[in-house]
Design brief:
3 domains; Rossmann fold; elongated; six-stranded parallel sheet; about 325 residues; alpha/beta; about 45% helix; single chain; six-stranded mixed sheet; 434 Repressor (Amino-terminal Domain)
Length: about 325
């Protein structure tokens, strides 16, 4: 590994001079700066940002903990977040919790050991007592995203999933649906999805409509699970005129099963998703979905981080709006 001392020897200066040049501090001549930069480039020197943050107490790292990078909505959030933070020379370090409280606890501890400037963490997980203690005691500014119903951290940015469940139910009631199903997975881990489901069922019941709830704790929240659970629904003999899926991915899987089985969507069965991540993959069948703007959410978080870093007060709680995006499946 190339060190500061290696660069100093090649540039024929002291290690302190190399450090000052690379950090942009001190009164160093242009000629010396050029020699240092050329030596660093020739040797392929990479600064140790962690060591620098420990000595100066100024970290340039933003730690981000999300359920899965494979989930398109989080990819949108992180892409937007990164584009703004990169302009401020802040780097992102991403870890996954897989919606598992024990994994989240371990990842929070590891991320905090890096002494990040900020920790951005997805809510909606039944965090352990130790995780909550770490977040409270460690002193790193904590920004929670995605969960607008249970605000935590110095800053919280996300939609209300309770409201999403109501939007779905209102839509189905307005359509006059009477034989309705909800299909999901891992709702015991995903508290946000659980709140959406519970509010949806409650609102439908209040309208005099029973809901056939079909979930599986052992299946991931992906298209294949939507296929499998929709097959189970049909094989069980259930007659439905509307299905609300946990997310767009599962709805796409369910749509495949319905169409292959000869059902006419939306004439015979209405299909509704959540999170709007299917829009860019649409060719002919445009899924009706409830969504929030992930890129906008990322920009709000980035702005809060930059404001806080500049000593300004960041908005403590931002409730992101939800919209019913009409497609041709309801």
């Amino acid at each position: 590994m190339v060190t500061l001392a290696d660069v100093a020897r090649l540039a024929k200066v002291s290690t302190m001079t190399v450090s000052k040049v690379l950090r942009g501090t001190g009164a160093i001549s242009d000629q010396t700066k050029t020699r240092v930069f050329e030596a660093a480039e020739e040797l392929g020197y990479v600064p140790n940002r962690l060591a620098g943050s420990l000595s100066t107490r100024k970290s340039m790292l933003v730690a981000v903990l999300i359920p899965s990078i494979a989930d398109t909505i989080y990819a949108e959030i992180i892409s937007s977040l990164h584009s703004l933070l990169d302009q401020a020379s802040l780097s992102i370090f991403i870890a996954e919790s897989q919606m598992d409280p024990q994994v989240e606890e371990r990842q929070v501890q590891e991320l905090l050991s890096l002494r990040p400037a900020f920790l951005v963490r997805s809510g909606g997980i039944a965090s352990t007592k130790r995780t909550k203690a770490l977040l409270h005691r460690f002193g790193v500014p904590h920004i929670q995203i995605w969960d607008g119903d249970d605000p935590q951290g110095q800053v919280n940015v996300g939609p209300s999933h309770i409201e999403a469940g109501k939007i779905a139910a209102d839509h189905f009631v307005k359509l006059g649906l009477r034989k309705v199903a909800y299909i999901g997975a891992e709702t015991q881990l995903d508290l946000c999805a659980s709140r959406r489901m519970e509010r949806f069922v409650k609102e439908m019941n209040s309208a005099g409509v029973d809901v056939n709830v079909l979930t599986d704790p052992d299946l991931p929240r992906q298209a294949e699970s939507g296929e499998l659970l929709t097959q189970r629904l049909l094989k069980g003999g259930s007659q439905v005129d509307g299905i609300f899926f946990l997310n767009d991915a599962m709805a796409i899987g369910g749509l495949r099963v319905l169409l292959n089985a000869g059902y006419r969507v939306p004439d015979e069965v209405r299909v509704l998703g959540f999170n709007g991540t299917s829009r860019e993959q649409t060719i002919t069948t445009r899924l009706t979905t409830i969504s929030t703007d992930g890129r906008h959410l990322g920009r709000i978080v980035a702005t809060a981080i930059l404001d806080s870093a500049a000593g300004k007060n960041a908005e403590s709680h931002t409730l992101c709006p939800l919209t019913l995006d009409p497609g041709n499946t309801t």
